[in-house]
Specification:
By secondary structure, the protein is α+β, with helices and mostly antiparallel strands. It has 17 helices and 27 strands. 48% of the residues are buried.
């Protein structure tokens, strides 16, 4: 069977900032994995939630404890993040246990669960949206037979829906601070309604605490990540608003360097409401009329499944963007053969996987083979916990490893190189590059196939096959991975990911250029237009021209 290690993310509402997707909340995830073990038994467990009354305070405490016990049993790198982030799992658990125990209602509790999982830097770890239709068919086929689980999802969907209804008629102004080059830079939402003067501002403090410290444990809909260039934990975005959530005081420097102070509101509850509100309004038939936008120009690139390709004679290059390795219309061999065909008579190839969160392992192998004129070896040391080893029947043989206290197996596979000749190849990565896409980046770099450019994909988790489970009391379901791959330097890819050869990030100015182009109806994915705003791509093209 093909091993599928990535996942899709479905978004209801959000803000797109340069190379990172600053989404206000994940509306759902398609859990993508194929297991040959006893998951039917796992998914037949009864959910005890009383859907007419909801959870008691005691049940929330016990429910959260079950989540922690599960993660502690099956996630092999749970305690490894502290070495890099300076935040221990026990500290995180204690903080969120208190939040769970003190949650005033079920909506607040479910956002605590989201915040807790987002505070563990594993790329595969997240809470699921309460709708069976948003679960991958492999899992939904089993879970749909569990009536108690289905009823629980209906209950939680109503919880979200009812909370959002409270704010249908409320005007909400957002202040978005996105992480750029070690600082949180301001973006008004929308940017042409900058009543607080935050566009290009720099966030200093929240309630007297520095922005860097504020993000470490505060519940957020954004994953905790690590900036290997500026050596600090960060989140893609911090969102404040003028209406919903916990009140706070923020201080920031505007674009002219003048210091400001403002009373605002924040929190995972607020962000969740803001993100879901329009979705539920549309369901209720209360959505506001949308303003039509300028028609976008016709795309100049070729689309093959989740891959786009555009050749530039002017720059003597082929720009290929692969957004996932799980296309339903073009498998790995189709992408690989297309790549070989369209790269003929082109010396330089740019492969962009900055938004690629993974997919089929075999797809990644086929594409990387098309980039090499010689055979290469995929090699990984993969680890699981003792509890995982004892409970699940694994396809591979695992042996106990004394140095880690985990069980280890070796994955060693030969990949046939099918490229006619060696090309100058540049691989663009980001902190979103994950799972099988991280495997692609890791093997690309290890086998010296070209130059890796971008930002470190901390939590990339190559070989991190997706797993799904749910809590017996609440029925809240969540994703994680039971597998961890070791890098050649002795670090886990779940912690450090794959570092680029050249660190390059996007400046905040690039965001405003991109927004202007979109407003003009320009296709921001065209190579010509990208070379106006995409700083990483611009610098890569300069490298090619200088080398030529």
């Amino acid at each position: 069977m093909r091993r599928k290690t990535g996942f899709k993310i479905f978004i209801i509402a959000g803000i797109s900032i340069i190379g990172v997707s600053l989404i206000a909340v994940l509306i759902a995830m398609a859990w993508v994995i194929i297991f040959a073990n006893n998951y039917d038994a796992v998914y037949s467990r009864k959910v005890i939630l009383d859907t007419s009354a909801g959870l008691t305070a005691q049940q929330r405490t016990e429910d959260f404890s079950q989540l922690c016990e599960h993660l502690e049993a099956y996630v092999p790198t749970l305690y490894e993040y502290e070495k890099l982030y300076g935040i221990s799992y026990d500290e995180t658990k204690s903080y969120y246990s208190t939040l769970a125990a003190n949650a005033e209602n079920d909506f607040e509790y479910c956002t605590v669960i989201r915040g807790f999982l987002n505070n563990i830097p594993s790329a595969h770890m997240a809470v699921g949206f309460p709708s069976l239709s948003k679960i991958d068919e492999y899992f939904s086929a089993r879970l749909s037979k569990n009536k108690s689980f289905v009823n629980a999802q209906d209950y939680w969907l109503d919880v979200y829906h009812n909370e959002c209804r409270k704010y249908y008629d409320k005007e909400i102004t957002q202040l978005v601070f996105a992480y750029y080059s070690g600082k949180y830079r301001g973006v008004a939402e929308p940017i042409d309604n900058d009543i607080y003067g935050v566009n290009k501002a720099t966030l200093l403090t929240v309630n007297g605490v520095s922005a860097d410290e504020f993000v470490k444990l505060t519940p957020s809909v954004y994953k905790l990540k690590y900036d290997h260039s500026n050596l600090r934990p960060f989140r893609d975005t911090i969102i404040f608003n003028d209406s919903i959530g916990e009140e706070c005081t923020i201080e920031y420097l505007d674009a002219d360097g003048e210091k400001h102070s403002a009373r605002m509101y924040y929190g995972a509850e607020a962000d969740t409401v803001i993100a879901y509100r329009d979705y539920f309004m549309s369901i209720d038939g209360a959505a506001a009329d949308t303003i039509s936008t300028t028609d976008s120009e016709q795309a100049s690139y070729t689309t093959i499944g989740d891959m786009t390709a555009e050749k530039s004679e002017e720059h003597n290059l082929l720009y290929v963007c692969i957004n996932s390795f799980e296309s339903e219309t073009a498998d790995g061999m189709v992408m690989a053969n297309s790549l070989k065909s369209i790269s003929e008579e082109t010396d330089n190839i740019i492969i962009d996987i900055r938004k690629n969160r993974g997919g089929y392992y075999d797809y990644a192998k086929a594409v990387i083979g098309a980039l090499s004129d010689s055979d290469i070896e995929f090699y990984s040391e993969v680890y699981i916990t003792e509890a995982s080893y004892n409970k699940f029947k694994e396809e591979r043989t695992y042996v106990f490893d004394e140095s880690t206290g985990l069980y280890k197996t070796i994955i060693n596979e030969s990949v046939k190189g099918t490229a006619a000749e060696k090309k100058n190849i540049y691989l663009l990565v980001s902190d979103q590059t994950g799972s099988s896409a991280d495997n692609f980046a890791y093997e690309f770099k290890k086998n010296n196939l070209g130059t890796v450019i971008g930002t470190n994909n901390t939590g990339g988790e190559r070989n991190g096959t997706m797993c799904l489970d749910y809590l017996d009391i609440s029925g809240i379901y969540f994703a994680y991975t039971r597998y961890a791959a070791m890098n050649s330097d002795g670090t886990f890819s779940s912690v450090t990911g794959t570092s680029p050869d050249i660190y390059l990030g996007q400046p905040i100015e690039a965001y405003f250029i991109r927004v202007r182009l979109e407003a003009e109806g320009k296709d921001i994915n065209n190579l010509e237009n990208r070379l106006e705003w995409d700083s990483v791509l611009i610098e890569t093209v300069k490298m090619i021209e200088e080398k030529s």
